[in-house]
Please model this.
Amino acid sequence: MQRLIRGLVVALLTACPVVSAHGQAACGGVEDPCATPLGTYHVAVPEGPGPHPVFLYFHGAGGNGARQLGTEWAKALLARGFAVAAPNGLERPNSRFGPGWFFRPESPGRRDELAFARELIDDLVDRHGVDPNQVVLTGYSIGGSLVWYLACADHQLAAAYTPYAGGFWRPHPEDCSGPVKLLHTHGWRDQTVPLEGRPLRNGAIYQGDIFEGLQRWRAENGCTKLRADEFETSGRYWRRTYTSCDEGTALELALWPGGHVPPDGEWAEFAADWVEGVLP
Model:
């Protein structure tokens, strides 16, 4: 009899999907991505009542969202009370690196990534109860470049931006939609996405210069000086902060001694501290 009861319980659990607090079927695990009309994503939500702030992370070339949930940086953010969402890129024609993003205005690709990002945020709010006013866009390498372009296209898309090891490509945008709160992190020894940029495909495309990109953000943020105003060099990150800017903006560059490697748990703590310091 007990075996029969256990079998019935297992059958019921298998037949009935887990339901979220918003009445929708739960999804987003490593093997069960959530789907929107334009794509898919994975998500982990911390325990406790929401709404939760969320880091929305765009992976680097050849990556995928599922791999991100088990990383040290994702675990660190979850422990801090942030949800972590990681969408999946699409295969790019003529690319040997695998899935990625379509961010260069000069070469629109298979998907409108701004429309996809808006879908992602709406779905995270509706399905997983994240706080729409506490969305942070982040990403690594070309995922970081995508974050720069999304912020440029719609500065109100997210509350803050923390791109990592990826910025604008040439030609740099001559204008963006408005001011931002942005922390950019980059490796001093990065040779894949150098701070100065580099040509690819025999010069057919050209990574941009991070400092030239920051000049665009200084203009959008109403900064009155070319140079940074505050400096911190005592920790892992050498930080340059631009404070002579419009109220309600934030702009900072954090350099560290490494090369082109994904973020880790220490970066997550650093980024979370920064986000909590600039968001109300």
User: Anything to note?
Assistant: The chain is about 25% helix and 25% strand. The two ends are 57 Å apart (CA to CA). Confidence is low (pLDDT under 50) at residues 1-25. The longest strand covers residues 130-140.
